[in-house]
């Protein structure tokens, strides 16, 4: 009976979406166009190089090399194998859902146990600096120092989540081999992995491109879907009703109730929520930073759906990841309050910015502008290449 009810609910939800598309064709078209443009101009070109390089690292044994070297660091800190260092670094550099993708790949290759994978994915699926500083802080708020504050709190709180999650099922015995630090052993593992992969170089490159673009197409579909869903919920006043309930919580926390609709949008889709918070009538940068830091850490239901889709390919459970997102949001919000004065207020004009801060924001802003101007072209060329490779190369499924 339980499964019949769930089936009926799924069917009714699909019917609701279909009818909403018919009733609100123009808003749905605008939302769909917005989602596709965001994916094609920024998300796709910014993630593609990292995905391809990561696939090559895995194929050439570089991940095994890193695993041996980082075992003495990752095991005591986060209770995961050394290969987790690769996932952590790539997750921070490329942004979500890269951490989930690489965790899934390592789990499929049995380099992680189920519990270790659940620990790892909980703190490696972070936002990248390009989005935090370029899109949110400079693009929406025109405030580069806010980006430095958000980035510091985002990654520091993510580290704290990793420390906390090391105690998750800590009595579970690890079945992965614990490597001792040895450069010689690391090179041996790299060579052994490369020799075990019988694919020629051209095949390796083709598979890396095909697998990467396939994942990015999945991500693009989720971004577009949630952009449409959010707009539909706005049109039928579902978001308005939910925002009223959320307003009660914000009022209890002594936060402005008028920011409830924007904050709720951010819980669905980060970019939309960040933009609405920037446009909301609230002059308190601290309050805006608290809400922004939470939705960046929460990842938004759009990103969480992408992660759930990737994790479904393995036995990795979604619930620990979701719990970690709430924990990340709590830590990030608290750190914003603690670091706001020393990081933002003390350096709130361009003349007093530290040299490293000015350099990071300038470079990030330049990269973001490049993606906005040429990202669509890069995406189109890559999709053409993807079609050609699919015709002439049959991808190897790992």
From TrEMBL:
<feature type="transmembrane region" description="Helical">
    <location>
        <begin position="285"/>
        <end position="311"/>
    </location>
</feature>
<dbReference type="InterPro" id="IPR011642">
    <property type="entry name" value="Gate_dom"/>
</dbReference>
<protein>
    <submittedName>
        <fullName>Sporulation integral membrane protein YlbJ</fullName>
    </submittedName>
</protein>
<feature type="transmembrane region" description="Helical">
    <location>
        <begin position="36"/>
        <end position="66"/>
    </location>
</feature>
<keyword id="KW-0812">Transmembrane</keyword>
<dbReference type="InterPro" id="IPR014226">
    <property type="entry name" value="Spore_IM_YlbJ"/>
</dbReference>
<feature type="transmembrane region" description="Helical">
    <location>
        <begin position="6"/>
        <end position="24"/>
    </location>
</feature>
<feature type="transmembrane region" description="Helical">
    <location>
        <begin position="147"/>
        <end position="168"/>
    </location>
</feature>
<feature type="transmembrane region" description="Helical">
    <location>
        <begin position="375"/>
        <end position="393"/>
    </location>
</feature>
<dbReference type="Pfam" id="PF07670">
    <property type="entry name" value="Gate"/>
</dbReference>
<keyword id="KW-1133">Transmembrane helix</keyword>
<feature type="transmembrane region" description="Helical">
    <location>
        <begin position="318"/>
        <end position="340"/>
    </location>
</feature>
<keyword id="KW-0472">Membrane</keyword>
<feature type="transmembrane region" description="Helical">
    <location>
        <begin position="120"/>
        <end position="141"/>
    </location>
</feature>
<feature type="transmembrane region" description="Helical">
    <location>
        <begin position="78"/>
        <end position="99"/>
    </location>
</feature>
<feature type="domain" description="Nucleoside transporter/FeoB GTPase Gate">
    <location>
        <begin position="41"/>
        <end position="139"/>
    </location>
</feature>
<feature type="transmembrane region" description="Helical">
    <location>
        <begin position="204"/>
        <end position="226"/>
    </location>
</feature>
């Amino acid at each position: 009976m339980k499964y019949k009810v769930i089936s009926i609910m799924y069917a009714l939800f699909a019917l609701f979406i279909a009818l909403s598309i018919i009733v609100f064709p123009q808003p749905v078209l605008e939302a769909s166009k917005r989602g596709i443009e965001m994916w094609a101009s920024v998300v796709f070109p910014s993630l593609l190089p990292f995905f391809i390089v990561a696939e090559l690292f895995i194929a050439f044994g570089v991940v095994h090399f890193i695993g041996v070297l980082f075992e003495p660091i990752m095991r005591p800190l986060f209770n995961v194998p050394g290969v987790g260092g690769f996932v952590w670094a790539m997750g921070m550099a490329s942004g979500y859902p890269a951490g989930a993708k690489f965790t899934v790949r390592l789990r499929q290759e049995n380099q992680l146990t189920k519990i270790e994978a659940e620990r790892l994915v909980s703190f490696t699926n972070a936002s990248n600096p390009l989005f935090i500083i370029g899109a949110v802080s400079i693009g929406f708020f025109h405030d580069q120092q806010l980006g430095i504050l958000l980035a510091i709190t985002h990654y520091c709180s993510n580290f704290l989540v990793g420390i906390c999650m090391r105690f998750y099922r800590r009595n579970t015995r690890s079945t992965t081999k614990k490597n001792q630090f040895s450069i010689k052993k690391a090179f041996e593992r790299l060579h052994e992995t490369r020799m075990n992969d019988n694919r020629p170089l051209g095949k390796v490159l083709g598979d890396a491109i095909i697998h990467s673009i396939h994942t990015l197409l999945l991500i693009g579909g989720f971004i577009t879907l949630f952009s449409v869903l959010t707009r539909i919920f706005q049109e039928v006043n579902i978001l308005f009703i939910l925002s009223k309930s959320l307003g009660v919580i914000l009022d209890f926390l002594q936060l402005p109730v008028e920011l409830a609709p924007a904050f709720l949008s951010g819980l669905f889709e980060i970019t939309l929520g960040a933009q609405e918070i920037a446009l909301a009538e609230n002059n308190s940068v601290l309050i805006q930073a608290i809400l922004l830091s939470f939705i960046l850490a929460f990842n938004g239901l759009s990103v969480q759906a992408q992660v759930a889709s990737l994790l479904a390919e393995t036995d990795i459970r979604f619930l620990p990841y979701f719990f970690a997102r709430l924990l990340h949001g709590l830590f990030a919000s608290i750190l914003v309050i603690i670091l706001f004065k020393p990081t933002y207020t003390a350096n709130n004009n361009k003349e007093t910015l530290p040299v490293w801060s000015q350099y990071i924001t300038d470079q990030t802003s330049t990269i973001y502008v490049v993606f906005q101007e040429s990202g669509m072209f890069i995406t189109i060329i890559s999709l053409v290449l993807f079609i050609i490779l699919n015709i002439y190369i049959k991808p190897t499924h790992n």
